[in-house]
Amino acid sequence: MKKNSTRIEPLSEEEINNSKVVAVMNNKGGCAKTTTSIAFGLQMARLGYRVLFVDSDPQSNMSQRLGMDDNMFRERRISELFQKSEINQSKKERLSLPLAIDYPYFSRAKGSSEKPGILALLPGSRNAEIEAKASKDRFINSETIPRPELTPFFKERIDVFREYFDYIVIDTAPAMEGNVLNVITTGVVDEIVCPVDGLEAALGIPSLYRWVYGKTVENNITPNMTFAMVKYHTDSFNLGYEEEAYMDDEYVHNSVYQCLKETFGDFMCKSGVREQRTLRNAVQGFIKSPYQALSNELHDRFTSEIHENIFEATDPTILKIFSERLNVIEKKALVKKPTFKEPYFVL
């Protein structure tokens, strides 16, 4: 073994069966997808689990926040995975892209008897989406490549990593159907975490839910989805809920949270993360932070023997009521309402 390398042994068969692929996804930008991804992954490593971060957002914010700028290890980026999609690679070659992360003074979680787990990163690339689309076109037009679709190819690669990591955490771009990387991600994940930071992010949930629900039917897959309230502000005045609803909840005094909880029930996390200036662009996980409670709750959900699937327990009909509830909040929140007039252009 090389001096500057990290030895990673394969997991046991039981550990492989229990491994999880988790994508943090929302079609709205700026709602703490990257922060949630990193915080969850680092907390799992502090609990002793092996974690592989996969940066599938071409902006590569996850890689940058983990200390890798755009000019480092350019030949080890996720785009390389798709550039070599026509090559019949060996298992060793498939494992050659991720880089182990060695943070000084990275310690185990308080109360944990396990030493910190291994951290690794498959870095993002500005060309990732371009290369993924090019691979998709090559699969469609090729008469020799044995894989007719891109999703099975991506799943093959992810499944190899599952043999070595307990958690594979994928940070995604703020997009849906038009983004190839997000489309293929829905075909490989076990869990989708949808962070919501306020009304605007919540208004996009019906579209995201229908999109993922459609993928489950189309591809015969069953990813789960969990919602988490992050970067939220406590309501300064009542936006549509009785005061008792606020007081009964010990976690989040926020009307959007109440709306999500009423609609999606146990698929809404109880732990929330309030907006704090000190949390912006910080790498959460090294010290005690509000994200630890949320990360631990997500882990408990994912590993629970009783873990119901949202797409089996609900269907798109609930979205109408959800949208109506959000509209009530939106109208109350919009204190100064504009009027819209027909423009008259002077020629």
Structure description:
40% of the residues lie in helices and 11% in strands. It is of the alpha/beta class and 347 residues long. It has one domain: Rossmann fold (3-Layer(aba) Sandwich), CATH 3.40.50. The protein has an eight-stranded mixed beta sheet, sandwiched between helices. Helix 12 (255-264) runs antiparallel to helix 15 (318-333). It starts with 12 loop residues before the first helix and ends in a 14-residue tail after the last helix.
| CATH architecture identity | 3-Layer(aba) Sandwich
Mean pLDDT: 85
CATH fold call: Rossmann fold
Which regions are unreliable across 5 or more consecutive residues at pLDDT < 50?
A: 243-252
SSE-based structural type:
alpha/beta
Shape from CA axes? Answer: globular
CATH superfamily: P-loop containing nucleotide triphosphate hydrolases
Could you give the order of strands across the largest sheet?
Answer: 3-4-2-5-1-6-7-8
Number of helices: 15
In terms of quaternary structure, what is this?
Answer: single chain
How many structural domains in the coordinates?
Answer: 1
How many E-type strands? 8
Query: How does the major sheet shape up?
Result: 8 strands, mixed
Helix content: 40-55%
Order of helices and strands: HEHEHHHEEHHEHEHHEHHEHHH
Distance between the termini: 76 Å
Which value, in Å, is the CA radius of gyration? Answer: 21 Å
CATH top level is: Alpha Beta
Our estimate of the beta-strand percent is 5-15%
